[in-house]
Amino acid sequence: VQLQASGGGLVQPGSSLRLSCAASGFTDYVAIGWFRQAPGKVREGLSCISSRDGTTYYADSVKGRFTISRDNAKNTVYLQMNSLRPEDTAVYYCNAKMYSGVAYWGKGTLVTVSS
Distance (Å, rounded) from C-alpha 39 to C-alpha 37? Predict the structure, then answer.
């Protein structure tokens, strides 16, 4: 199982970024989600999308600004992030939860929002 997050970078407040999570090595899973961890803070769950019907979930901190989507043909889940704020600065990770209960993490991608 491999999850590869990409798309991070340095942007100014108010900007947008799209993160990608390329998944491989599995076909059946419960959901893929995005998390982030800022320096000195605990990892925070942001959004997830279910495998079966595409149901989405958003944390209050990102609702209305971030959008999760998937491209099944490319085995990729995206996180479109708009109206970025300095407090969105963090390392962003994607996670896949299996029906067995096991969860897999990819390496993170750093997002820095600064003027």
Answer: 7
